[in-house]
Amino acid sequence: MYSEKVMDHFQNPRNAGELENANGVGTVGNAKCGDIMRIYFDIDDDQIIKDVRFKTFGCGAAVATSSMATELVKGKTIYEALEVTNKAVMEALDGLPPVKVHCSLLAEEAIHAALWDYAEKKGIVIEGLEKPKNDIHEEEEEEEY
Amino acid sequence: MYSEKVMDHFQNPRNAGELENANGVGTVGNAKCGDIMRIYFDIDDDQIIKDVRFKTFGCGAAVATSSMATELVKGKTIYEALEVTNKAVMEALDGLPPVKVHCSLLAEEAIHAALWDYAEKKGIVIEGLEKPKNDIHEEEEEEEY
Amino acid sequence: MKKLIYLDNAATTQVSKEVVDEMLPYFTEEYGNASSVYEFGSKNKGAIEKAREVIGKALGSKANEIYFTAGGSESDNWAIKATADAYKEKGNHIITSKIEHHAVLHTCEYLEEQGFEVTYLDVDENGIIKLEELKKAIRPTTILISIMFANNEIGTIEPMKEIGELANQNNILFHTDAVQAFGQVPINVDEYHIDMLSASAHKLNGPKGIGFLYIRTGVKIRSYVHGGAQERKRRAGTENVPGIVGMSKAVEIAVSTIEERAKKETELRDYLINRVLKEVPYTRLNGHRTKRLPNNVNFSFQFVEGESLLIMLDMEGICGSSGSACTSGSLDPSHVLLAIGLPHEIAHGSLRLSLSEQTSKEDIDFVIETIKKIVEKLRNMSPLYEDYIKNNN
Amino acid sequence: MKKLIYLDNAATTQVSKEVVDEMLPYFTEEYGNASSVYEFGSKNKGAIEKAREVIGKALGSKANEIYFTAGGSESDNWAIKATADAYKEKGNHIITSKIEHHAVLHTCEYLEEQGFEVTYLDVDENGIIKLEELKKAIRPTTILISIMFANNEIGTIEPMKEIGELANQNNILFHTDAVQAFGQVPINVDEYHIDMLSASAHKLNGPKGIGFLYIRTGVKIRSYVHGGAQERKRRAGTENVPGIVGMSKAVEIAVSTIEERAKKETELRDYLINRVLKEVPYTRLNGHRTKRLPNNVNFSFQFVEGESLLIMLDMEGICGSSGSACTSGSLDPSHVLLAIGLPHEIAHGSLRLSLSEQTSKEDIDFVIETIKKIVEKLRNMSPLYEDYIKNNN
Ligand SMILES: Cc1ncc(COP(=O)(O)O)c(C=O)c1O
Ligand SMILES: Cc1ncc(COP(=O)(O)O)c(C=O)c1O
Fold it and tell me: Which residues 6+ apart lie within 8 Å of D158 measured at CB?
């Protein structure tokens, strides 16, 4: 069901855990959908993401996308991080099963939420960043035959 | 599906064929139902059935019941023959599958038809003998569950 | 063991050894649930998807247009009832033929009880539906045309292409019961504009209890068996993996040998037909002389009743059938033979012999000689024959 | 091969060797059509009738009250839809429960679309239906009560006797989905006033794709799969003889070992339950503590999501499942766990382990240790756990 990359990131999640000195924390998803992601950023004065951690309650894909998302943003500026889309996360993982695409959306949204938190704390505006919804849940569609 | 007795009478039908000097011939059934039986009697002056033959177009049970019916009436008086019921034929054959019971009715009716023909030819009345219907066909019933 | 000449392959076939070998591991080794998370189920899942591809390829369809069922009857029921259900807003009229298998006919009769209208098309003396009649039968409310690919009793192959085109031009769904044809004659669902197609594995040396329904992308029918999310939520029930794998193998073999088998069987078939017609008087071939399944032969022997004939053949080790296998036990003569215009007493005297790859010329020679003897014996016992001879001498 | 501890026997089971051996001849040797005239089909016919007797005996029913189907889903669909169809003059109301298998639930939802009214009974925190609610739900128009014998996710056994008596007193038909219970707990259809009962062979070491519906004499439902005259005209389709024979053998074995299996499995089950509840904090047992299937265990591990847990168990060679097997791939949490009152996040974290005769104490010990490690690992990654600890310290 999952690609090798997904399985690898699920079994050996990168950057799992908490970040004591985080200056941006975002939590998205909800228990009803079965996925909650939290991302912690340590962003330095040059607006570079020096360190990142995540915690995720969710399926294998949710854990793997969180892990991959943290990899993709680590060492990037906040504007570069803003460009990390769910598509990029999925591609980096060699794809996801259709029913799991929403996990990658959640990862994108978690990055945005952490950036938003950072911006609020700093009192700055990150251009192009919208206030994240914390409930990303695509309606499961009737399959098209 | 069939008892050994039925199979025996089907494979080695007794009294199959035509009787040249028959003085009573009865044909019953119709092609629509898939069964036609004809019985030939040679009845002597003491009203004893001296010889008997049959011809049958029909299933295994139809052939076997014809064969058995001829056996049961051979050497009997016409009144004794009149008592040979479809039940007697069936019992003598160790039973018939439910869907084939109508064949034994046909055999009983064929005897009656041949007796009727004899009576008409002789100008006598055989007490207890009704004019046979030549179409014996039980409606196949909806199975009872 | 007694000699056995099995000529009832239209009813069901021997499962080939390769098929059984393919199935075996899925009983005792790879038994995990195919719809599961664990790795142990993934081989099953893979096997199912491979089967879908094999079958899709055989039909010129996409893999995901193949849905597994328990056999031909379920496929027919599903296609017809679910179409009625899904398209009832569009109309309530269905067109089928008088010679369909009971799985189609009784389903249509059931729908009539539910308020649908069904036209049962006549066929000609060879069992071919009349295209003019079909054209005339089409109404604005017609939602489905269901015509079998080839008939199970008399082997006649219907004009699929013409039917498909008519259906297509009139924007009507076209379902075909290809239970007899699939694996015996090449089928391409696009060429014939087929929207739904039923098949059953046990007719082509696969296992019993497994079949499929092809459903063209875009056809909006939903589940017939409701429940779990299997088969993309369209057919519930734990996947019958051994059955699916067995069917896949059977299809693979059937497709790869289709030409040589057809050639061999057609030759034997024609040999059987020609000799019997020549050597047994008062005999009729039922079904079209050439537009027929390579393995199907169906005779009517006048003045002779079918069951008696069958039992006597059986006593010589020859397995044949009379009328449709599924209705044996019934007293009615075959609806197919009546539809091609046979009178009752002749319809009662029919014999279907359906060949397989295994059938040999020696078998057929023996069958012919046996038929000759038996038919003569039965005619000598037949009051109909007696009357006929007396009236014509 | 990697070590494999298969604890998904509620989803499907290994076919036992004796069962396969029994089936094998019917693929390649005794393949003739069971509904035929010839002798070669009669062994098949005999095998089918013997199977009917074996199963009838297992249920305390007559042989001719057993009808073969393609599995549990078809049996459920048949029982419910055909009852609706046959008794619609009497009424249009059906009573079922919120924790039924989807084969029952989706069928009932389908009937609602067709104008029937369905009451879905609540259950208590252990998954037992409330008899008082059932009593109140009964209307003059109620034609059917369909309550499962035992639940497939949480293993809870329903009060069959009480339900059957209520149905009987009120002259309402009683159907039970016994797919999980049959072969695991003794069932007598008369004792429980059961009018229809669904079962599926692959749940008791029989083959997939075969099941049956028990229909009490006098129940007037007709065909669901229309077509040929098989199964006394009530279920069309060429008989799946290998499947029927395999199921019969599986039932024979299951019935003859039912007590010792139950004893052995119950012991192991309770050992697993007790240790996990004691050794893994924030854990809940779902389903009734004692009124449960001998082989069913279902836990919720708070702060942990089920699929992650399953994959990690799988990596250690342990096959389990989460929610109902049939809905995996779905994002919804189990309807059963919601019905017993679990909040969503806990419902998402459930694990079903279903034992077999083969399961050993060593297996269970390994499973317990593995669960402990994995749950800890996942909790350390869980934002819910983090919040919980912070809020409670
Ligand atoms: C309670 C219950 N009912 C019905 C079914 C459906 O049975 P099958 O998958 O054999 O169709 C299952 C198993 O999946 C079940 O556990
Ligand atoms: C033309 C046709 N349709 C449908 C069926 C039914 O298939 P099954 O018996 O596999 O359900 C058969 C065979 O019996 C058939 O010949």
Answer: D97, D128, D129, D147, D148, D149, D150, D151
CB atoms within 10 A of CB D83: 23
Number of H helices, E strands in chain C: 15, 12
Please tell me the distance between residue D180's alpha carbon and the centre of ligand 1 in angstroms.
7
| Residues of A noted as catalytic | 33, 103
- Report yes or no on whether pTM surpasses 0.90: yes
- Closest residue on chain A to D311 (Cα): A60
C38 and A CB contact within 8 Å: no
- Mean pLDDT over D111-115 rounds to 97
8 Å CB contact between A90 and A101: yes
Round to whole Å and give the CA distance between C283 and C271. Answer: 15
Reported CATH class of domain B4-140: alpha beta
Active-site residue, selected from the candidate residues B61, B72, B84, B103: B103
CATH number, domain of C363, equals 3.90.1150.10
Using the atom order of ligand 1, give the atom closest to the CA of residue D148.
1
CB contact under 8 A, D215 and B1: no
Indicate whether D63 and D185 sit together in one domain: yes
Q: Which domain holds residue D324?
A: 5-11+258-391
- Give yes or no: D326 in active site: yes
Over chain C (393 residues), what is each successive 10-residue block's mean pLDDT?
A: 88 98 97 88 94 98 98 98 97 98 98 97 98 98 98 98 98 98 98 98 98 97 95 95 98 98 98 98 97 98 94 96 53 87 90 97 98 97 95 88
CA distance D26 to D32: 9
Instruction: Provide, as residue numbers in chain C, all residues whose Cβ is less than 8 Å from the Cβ of A1.
Output: 37, 42
For residue D161, what is the domain's CATH number? Answer: 3.40.640.10
Mean pLDDT of chain D: 95
Report ipTM for this prediction. Answer: 0.93
β-pairing, C66-69 vs C211-215, is antiparallel
Is the pLDDT confidence value at A75 over 80? yes
Catalytic-labelled residue, pool C326, C338, C368, C384: C326
